Amino acid sequence: MSETLSYVGWLIVVILAILGGLFVVIIVRRWAVATPESEPLTLDQLRELHSQGKVTDEEYRVIRTTLLAKMGVRDAGEPHVPRP
Length: 84
Prior knowledge:
The protein has helices at 2-34, 43-51, 57-71. The relative contact order is 0.08. The protein is an all-alpha fold. The longest helix is centred in the first third of the chain and has 33 residues, at 2-34.
């Protein structure tokens, strides 16, 4: 009899753990859907960051190439103006 109660007790613990996990998944999904995504970086914003010295020349080149590729634009070698 006590062995059966032990199994029932563990079964209840497992069921509660599964329900708790599902609850956490539901809460995280709601939070993820409710969290607005940040605005994507534009080339103008990238140029501004570079001119302010917040982005190095190498970072500027890599990010610019990546942005142009995502837009489906071939890099035409935009004239680069060094930071002051």
